[in-house]
Amino acid sequence: MGFITDKQTLEDLNLLGRYRSNSIFNLFNHTVTRGGDNLLSRMFAEPLTSEKEINKRRDIISFFQSREIVFPLTREEFDCAEQYLSNTHRSGYISSMFSNLRRKFLKLVANDKELDEICSGYNASVNLFIVLKEMFTGLMQKDSVYAPVAGRAIEILNRKDISEVTAGRSFEEISFSKYMLFDHRLRSTGAAAVMELLDIVYAADAYISVAETGRRRGFNFAEAGSGNGMSINIEGLYHPCVPDAIANDLILDNEKSVLFLTGANMAGKSTLMKAFGVTLYLAHMGFPLPVSKMSFNVQEGMYTSINVPDNLNMGYSHFYAEVVRVKNIATEVSSGKRLTIMFDELFKGTNVKDAYDATVAVTEAFSRSKKCAFIVSTHIMEAGITLRESCGNIIFRFLPTRLNGNKPEYTYKMEDGISDDRHGMRIIQNERIIETILGKN
What we know:
By secondary structure, the protein is α/β, with parallel strands linked by helices. Helix content is 51%, strand content 14%. α8 (147-157) packs antiparallel against α11.
């Protein structure tokens, strides 16, 4: 079974979205090939749940990152070769030969462009094989985790039907009869091997893209463990899309499985939760992470409740949509899965008294789970005070607000305890909202 999550969580964390410039997907997507782009998209859609697979992918990406590999072709150069090589045919040599002779005849009598396109694709393919052999030979580092893959790529490139094409050079440097033979080998008898080679190239393109992001941003890798207990240990956590982000440390385990996070509005609670969610998700993909150091036992899934909208089609108010969300997550938690759950400002759609009662009751009930990790944020500090008296496995942290005169300033650095910040009215006063209403501005 794969890593479990849902659309709400993916949107809360802004993980996917090829057409969202600020998505986490696009942070890592610098692929050259369409196949690499598609593979990277599948990686994001399907995080891993085996520590061996996670650590193996991590080691491959780390290998690419340490070697500072650059993809050897432009998108245009690769697309030209790919279009030619992907247009395979299963006909025999005689049929293939007559097809090429027809193209040559049409070129001579009507200046038809089909042969020119074939010629361009063939030449691009010859160049592709040359640069790929150089790249994969450079990746044949003894005992590296990627050596078997690089070795298979070189094995394909050394096949007679490909090596002779490479030795024959461009379309213009060989006879038309030799071209027809080579064309048949590449796109018919040797097509399966060529497609396998392209799949290896797509994966290398995705690894190069991810490694480039990790190297450029100074990301580090996590160690995935297989223990049955819940354990997430992060040093230097920050959000990868926040400029000059402040880093925090966070540990959740069987003894302390709930982080109860308080702080004023704008203190950074939501950003910290998103940073944690993004990082844990990427860790299950084996990707480089915005952390100094991280180790974790593999989880089965993750759910968040950060930006829950109302649902007019279902007739749900914002509060009832929150209730439904909490109920659905509770159902998943009660199934015994190893999950990470995050609630940002539980029940903010109702009055303060009900929000307090519900936050205490729900957090207390979730804290009894033996397999899951939870982060619950609120600015209702009284809820934390009550929970501190009744629950021994909750960690209480807060994000402080400092006053510089009447101006609130935020450290974004977690501290032990429960916040007692109440600066909302000061912010309203600083913005002179009352004066604006009364026309005194």
